[in-house]
Write a structure and sequence with these properties.
With 201 residues, this protein is an alpha+beta fold. The chain has five helices and seven strands, in the order ββαβββββαααα. The protein has a five-stranded mixed beta barrel with strand order 1-3-5-6-7. The relative contact order is 0.17. It is globular and about 50 Å long. α3 crosses α5. The N and C termini lie far apart (57 Å). A hairpin with a 5-residue loop joins β5 and β6.
């Protein structure tokens, strides 16, 4: 196989959303992704996780044009010989000129998006910080490598957006929002709705 174009970034379309600063655990079995992960590990580069619009994780798929660069933090081999990796979301990117290469790997040019402003968690959302702390404790090893700032609005909103059972459409909206308070408002509404449903059941 020849050298790939260094001006494009490999994509990993998935049925989930990766938020910056969050973890994702993947079981790698398709040859196109085994090759991609091997190259990323050799060259210390990342790949972009982007949410599938339609299609499946195996085979062709249409995907959103905003995703998150992921870098590999750990890997292991399963008993069946398949590769498992833990990757960490780094920053949001916008994709352009996507194409599917001969081996089926999707690639695209990427533009890094500005980081959202860091801001203290507003008092009205303090209860979300307490909720997040409880959830992180329950999740254990999945978040062992993640630094969680329970006083930062962006961090609290992003972690809850990925942990809570929101629809993928809402998770993608949370990814695309440029202000942490707007994300907290979506998460807060979801928590209130879940609480109401529990009380009614």
């Amino acid at each position: 196989m020849g050298e790939r174009d260094s001006t494009v970034t490999p994509l990993f379309p998935l049925g989930t959303v990766l938020m910056p600063g969050g973890p994702i655990m993947l079981r790698i079995f398709e040859p196109r992704y085994v090759d991609m992960i091997g190259r990323c590990m050799r060259e210390s580069t990342g790949f972009v996780v982007t949410l599938i619009k339609n299609g499946g994780e195996v085979g062709p798929a249409a995907f959103h044009d905003m995703g998150t660069v992921a870098t590999i933090a750990d890997w292991h081999q399963y008993d069946d010989g398949l590769l498992g990796i833990t990757a960490i979301g780094q920053h949001r990117v916008r994709l352009s000129e996507p194409r599917r290469e001969d081996d089926g790997l999707n690639v695209a040019a990427v533009e890094a998006l500005p980081e959202e402003p860091r801001m203290a968690l507003p008092e009205e959302f303090a209860y979300l910080s307490r909720l997040l702390e409880q959830l992180i404790e329950q999740l254990g090893t999945q978040y062992a490598m993640i630094e969680v700032d329970y006083e930062d609005a962006g961090c609290v909103g992003a972690r809850l957006a990925e942990i809570l059972p929101l629809s993928n459409a809402k998770k993608q909206t949370c990814l695309e929002l440029d202000h942490p308070v707007a994300r907290l408002e979506i998460v807060s509404a979801a928590v209130r709705e879940m609480t109401r449903q529990e009380e009614d059941s």
